[in-house]
Amino acid sequence: MSTPAARLASEDFGPATSRKPEFRAWLITTLIGWAAFIAFLFFFSWILVQLGRIPVVGNIVALILILVMITATLLTMADRKWSALMQDRVGPNRARFAIIPGLRDKPLKGIPHIVADVLKMLFKEDFIPEGALHNRILFNLAPLLAFAPAFMLFAVVPVSPTLQVAKVDWGILYVFALASIAVFGTALAGWTSNNKLALLGGLRASAQLVSYEVTLGLTVVGTFIAFGTLRLDGMAQLQGMVEPSIRTAIATADSWFVHDQSVLFGWLPAWGLIFQPLGMILFLVAAQAEIKRAPFDTPEGESEIIGYFLEYSGLKSGLFLIAEYAETVVVAGIVTTVFLGAYHLPWVEPTVARALGFSSLEVLQVFAFIVKMLAVIWVMFVVRWAFPRFRYDQIMRLGWKMMLPISLVNVAVTAAVYLWAGREGMAWMGIAEWAGIIFYIGLTHG
Amino acid sequence: MDDLKFGERFYLREAIQGMGILARHFWKNLFGFRDPNPEILERKGAGVNMVSTMNYPEERKEYPPGYRGMHRLVPRVDGKPRCVACYMCATACPAQCIYIEAGEYQAEAIEKFPVRFEIDELRCIVCGFCVEACPKDAIRMDTGTHAPAVLSRPLAVFDKEALLKGPAVEYPSDVLTYRVPLRVLPKDH
Questions:
Q1: Share of residues in chain A with pLDDT > 90 (%)
Q2: Chain A neighbors of B68, CB-CB under 8 A
């Protein structure tokens, strides 16, 4: 309002500057918002546990339809919003639920954009290019082959002791088998589109995925050695206390705090990341390459080739996009299960079970699983936005000449340490590895 | 590649440091509140995050004082335009966006006034020559706003009623020219 010009402008448009938000109002809204978010997560966990009690279909509905689908859908917006926050932007906030009177001027953190995107994809023409007409079946099959494995993968992930679709002996092998099927989707999409750039994308995807599956498989061999099982639910049980041992611990407890007997040396949770720090980092990197997220997104490479899904439109294109987020959720779920202690709360599980009962403990465990999963997803998104895309030969060199030898050495050393000093020796090895990584990152100067 | 030191060639530390920067920005922007001050460099203080976006239609930056904004026809104190329809602005206009039709006052010292005064804001190149050419200080570009967006071309042609706005201007010499009729015209003129 200092200049006469600004005064005149305000007659037409109102004041040029809006009011600065008050600190107290900001604090209250922030606290209420986080409390509401955590309460929602608890409610969501409770809903999942209740749905899981329905026989036969309960687990499928609760985990695959609700947990993976809702998380993947929200991640499409979280990706844009979180990247905006990392890059000092506001992010998408223009779509509104204008037909609902109270929400007319509320951006709602970009949630309406999800509805807008879905509606856009639904009403786009389902276009098949002329060159793909003689491969119409394969052309239509490709998005399904990319989409379906991502969802089926979650079948073996235990979200709580009871909440798991399939408790099978070959759990982690199923993960690798289905992850390879996703290659068919991308390769088929690239080939049947009859487009040079799409074919290039499909070729890159197949080469990259096949290369990184080797590392992906080898990195978890260390955890096989540590836990002695291929079952994901078995791995989850070994990282904390199971119900019978909790009952025994409660019966013999002598104070209000029931000691968690699964912790190592009396204080360290026996989670996978304690035994296999190197394995976890390598697994995260290989998984990032396996689901074709940046910096390993040469198959998509939107600035050079548009990607293997170049010729797809409408919902088929949307399937490819949502499959990427579903794969992110699944990878985060597997990392949580194998390396981050699955659904276990650290230290307090028997105490909570005595105070609140086992059904409340299960809700808390689902909550813990979701929080850990979100944390892993967040780390994957930070990786995705921190690094520029690798060149194709750099990806191959990283995969074959760096990660594969390191994971082989990791397997050999882990096996030797296990034979020499057993499980506790592996924990000491892991602690030493963590100390080395922290020392290397934090204390040395390049 | 040869310039890199041994530690840097692992790439891991630099990678994690980069992620640390992103994480710092993320949490600071997530928990802090956004200061809508249009001067982005002045957005400082406790709890203010680093988001530097300006939500344009809701938040506007003040234009500088010398900004040549949209035209206005300067009114006299009695509300009529100061313009005497001398066509000097229309003549000076390189884009030929000013259209004037002159009329005649019956009972005033000055004789002419614009019956129609229209500016096509789509043709205008905002050079300011019309303001320089005006002998009566009747057209100015001091509104501080740009020409608004319109949905069809005819709406961008601003007529006299749309252009006549802002504070009135008068000079001591104006009294001699229009307030006091110097010659009284016969009634049947």
A1: 24
A2: none
